Amino acid sequence: MDILGIFEALIQVIGTPNHMLLILIAVPVGMFFGAIPGLGGKLGVVLAIPFVFGMDPIAGAIFLISMHSVVHTGGAIPSILFGVPGTGPDAATIVDGLPMTRKGEAGRAIGAALGASGVGGVIGGLFLIAVMPLLRPVVLAFGPAEFFFLALFGIMFIALLSGDSLVKGLTVGLFGLMLAFINLDPQTGAQRYTFDFLFLWDGIDIITAVLGIFALPEMIALGTTGGSIAQVQEKATYGIKGVLKGVHDVFSHWGLTIRTSIIGAFIGMIPGLGGDAASWICYGHAVQSSKNPEQLGKGAVEGVIAPETANNSKEGGSLLPTLFFGVPGSSGMAILLGAFVMLGLQPGPSLALTGMETVWTLIWALMIANIIAVVMFFAIAPCFSYLSYVRGNLLIPFVFILTCLGSYLSHRAWENLIVLILLGVIGHLMKKHHWPRPPFVIGLILGPIMEDSFHKAMALWGPSFVLRPGAITLVALTIISFSIYFWRKVDTNNEIK
Questions:
Q1: 175 φ, ψ to 5°?
Q2: What is the reported pTM?
Q3: Separation between Cα atoms, residue 11 and residue 4, nearest integer Å
Q4: pLDDT tens digit string along 134-146?
Q5: Could you state, in order of their start, the residue ranges of all structural domains in the chain?
């Protein structure tokens, strides 16, 4: 590894005023696209391409990667304050972020999200540097069989997020899996439960599903009870003190922060999984490793830290296969890949031989952008925390419009609004009767990955795909995780008795 070249790339970024100016412009633009539901990083990159066309290739790539890397930092704000995810991977932040807001801890939750995003982005970049020599064997070791069992491992977290009733959690998770089959069969192209509606050919939109299950029920509950989102006025942690406390939480839970950052970066490195899987798997890990797992889902700061570190660190991981193999690690990276080619950068194996300076430059730009994002947002975060004390009758129309806009913009289909209302009713009933809602999203996200990987694995190896070393390792990991979960359950029940 060329240590001198790594630091020369850092000097090129911070020592070039043009590069730093581009990062300073890209960061607020990226956070804006993340904070508005339905926009997201993909649309942001697409709209930015005409502006970077004709730029110096390195400068244009720095702008795009800086903008894309901080999208989820902005997406955490509406997730925490209103239960409206800015992007799909930010949905996991709602589970504990919104309950923290209701407890008067909006500032703390926002601070934790900002700190976790910054640390996750930096660790994701450092992860890139550390695993560079091991990149090729690690990426090539993952095939359809490993994808299948990794998705199965993620599905296992349904049990962890089921609260007091495993049966209810599994029922909700299976409901999410059922809706995941509404699409075109990936093997035959036949319609499945689409009822000849064209907009269902690509399946149920994740953003619409999350908005319906989480955002609308919260607004219905707020309208019914009245008052503000924050239900606690005394000892509330808002303003600058709350934000600082949240940032401190990130470092006081340093073990969880580092682990979920590495897990997120590793999952991002594997093409085809995406940020949704990374954030939910890391959230499940937070539940599994917590000393008080029963507090997760009720406003525990660990439930904000885990998905937010994963959201930002996975961008570093997904940059690896994108640059070195020309295989995008996520849908956002697929658009970035096209933008890099348009700028004159040619991702692929040859980049490892002749273009490492460019690679190091982009890695440093990603890390610097995350640090700048935290500083920028830290200045205005206290103002956001006060929104949780605004009267509900003033917030509900704004959030409802934001929710409908996010649902429509995600796929530009007005039919999504119908799906939004239907899932909103179901989500309201779940909330009213105390059924866990996170398992629904896990089933909806990981179901298609499991199905597609299973068919590919069967076509390549037949039933013997379960005997591949990677598959056996993941099966063992799943069994161990289940055993730990049930052992804790039994141990907790014995203590109660």
A1: -65, -40
A2: 0.76
A3: 11
A4: 665 665 667 788 8
A5: 3-496
